[in-house]
Write a structure and sequence with these properties.
Number of helices: 22
Structural class: alpha+beta
Strand content: 5-15%
Largest sheet: 7 strands, mixed
Number of strands: 11
């Protein structure tokens, strides 16, 4: 196992000041996996006969993928104030001093350094009621969630593994540190973390851990929805998104977080989509079954608002799930389509072309009820491809799609005597439509001449069609 020099430098500086320090958490785990790739085929005994929730045994596991050796956390017996003194020549940020964490910017990279600690009481099911500083690394590792995350690494002392995390990884097993009921009661978010880790690394949930998750699934309602959104997004953005969502459903976690989803997700595919969160969330929420008279798009927005997502995310997802938009069939229609959807025009068509399974099945059913030519699903895909070509033509040739693309603006119309406000907006909209339809050139001379003529003939009514 090797780490970049900055990590060694941080440990060396703390130790030269009389303290000790270790690399902990995900960096130690992922570096071990990168150096020791293990395949699920090596499992023997009863565990080997268990069917994984997350992994098709014909596939190759993804051990060690995603290792980021710049994302390194440290644990030390130095107190937060002592860490600040040791790194007084560096920028330090208090990101959780009450919990013992100081962020140190070392050679332009941020690293979190946390004092050894033990924790007691979790009345809110997420945060400890009391944090006590500890003197030994083993005490700090005891508070961690899973055995594979309770390993620590030191450049000279090697890997410290007091809870047999390595053996669990060799067995492709995700096991809690100590009693899994206690670990889940301490922090309910660990249920989602368990699914994410198991899916990403093709691990099997240790039976007692699985049982604890099933027993406490309703506790997700006590957790910050922002944190649930963060964990769910990390699952959806991973190559293992399909396995993760299948496991979420099998464990009953998905039904707690998104009870509106009623379609089986086992066959849902995510790998055909670009690696952007709004595509992945739209794929998941395409399985939402809205109430009668409501739309899937509207329900998706409601769900993401419940998760307290950003406006950008829930608006983009809602747009991808709209099924009432007519596909552009000619260039003027494509210009208007781009004008309405903006930078989401191509993503909308791409999402329709690739089609999540739930959407495609509905489209098959809809097309199956039609009669006559053009009723096959392949014809629908061809319509989308033609629409994408039209949109590409609009963008490649910078054809006008919105008022801001016109060669004149509101100030120019005011100079012609148009009233400021609604009249100008309506007039510019009409001018844009004439340009898109090819009835008027998008030049200042042509637009001003037409607007001036319309102004004179309509006596200021603003109708120029």
């Amino acid at each position: 196992m090797t780490f970049p020099q900055p990590a060694r430098d941080i440990i060396a500086r703390l130790e030269s000041a009389g303290y000790e320090a270790w690399v902990v958490g995900g960096a130690a785990r992922d570096a071990y996996l990168a150096a020791n790739p293990i395949k699920t085929g090596q499992i023997t005994g009863p565990l080997g006969r268990m069917k994984s929730l997350f992994h098709n045994k014909e596939e190759e596991p993804v051990w060690g993928e995603g290792v980021d050796l710049h994302d390194i956390d440290f644990a030390t017996n130095a107190r937060p104030q002592e860490v600040e003194m040791v790194f007084s020549d560096c920028k330090t940020v208090d990101v959780g001093k009450s919990f013992g964490t100081i962020k140190v910017v070392w050679k332009d990279l941020p690293y979190e350094i946390t004092t050894y600690r033990s924790e007691e009481g979790y009345r809110d099911g997420r945060h400890p009621d009391r944090v006590t500083y500890a003197d030994k690394i083993e005490e700090d590792l005891l508070r961690r969630d899973f055995t594979m995350n309770a390993m620590a690494y030191h450049p000279e002392r090697g890997l410290l593994d007091p809870f047999d995390g390595r053996e669990d990884l060799k067995k492709s097993l995700l096991r809690a540190v100590g009693n899994p009921e206690d670990r889940i009661e301490e922090d309910g978010l660990r249920m989602l973390r368990a699914v994410r880790f198991a899916a990403r690394l093709s691990l099997i949930l240790e039976p007692h851990l699985r049982k604890a998750i099933e027993n406490h699934k309703e506790d997700l309602n006590k957790i910050s929805m922002e944190r649930c959104l963060e964990e769910m997004t990390r699952m959806l953005m991973d190559k293992s998104a399909g396995r993760a969502m299948e496991a979420m459903e099998n464990l009953g976690l998905l039904q707690v977080l998104i009870p509106e989803i009623d379609s089986p997700l086992a066959k849902q595919r995510y790998d055909f989509l670009p690696h952007e969160d709004f595509y992945r969330w739209a794929c998941l929420l395409s399985s939402v079954s809205p109430k009668q008279g409501d739309s899937r798009s509207r329900w998706a927005k409601k769900i993401l608002r419940r998760f307290k997502s950003s406006n950008e995310l829930h608006n983009r997802v809602a747009l991808l799930l709209r099924e009432d938009l007519e596909l552009p069939k000619d260039l003027p229609h494509a210009q208007a389509f781009v004008g309405d959807l903006g930078d989401m025009a191509t993503p909308y068509l791409l999402f329709r072309k690739s089609g999540p399974d739930a959407f495609r099945e509905r489209k098959k059913s809809e097309i199956g009820r039609r009669r006559g030519p053009g009723s096959r699903l392949e014809n629908y895909r061809e319509e989308i491809i033609r629409a994408m070509d039209l949109v590409r033509t609009v963008k490649r040739n910078s054809l006008p799609t919105q008022i801001s693309d016109l060669s004149i603006g509101g100030r120019d119309l005011m100079d012609l005597g148009y009233n400021q406000g609604r009249q100008i907006g309506e007039t510019l909209e009409e001018l844009l439509n004439l340009v898109i339809e090819g009835e008027l050139e998008n030049t200042r001379e042509a637009l001003m001449a037409h607007a001036k003529k319309a102004r004179g003939s309509s006596d200021g009514e603003g109708s120029i069609s």
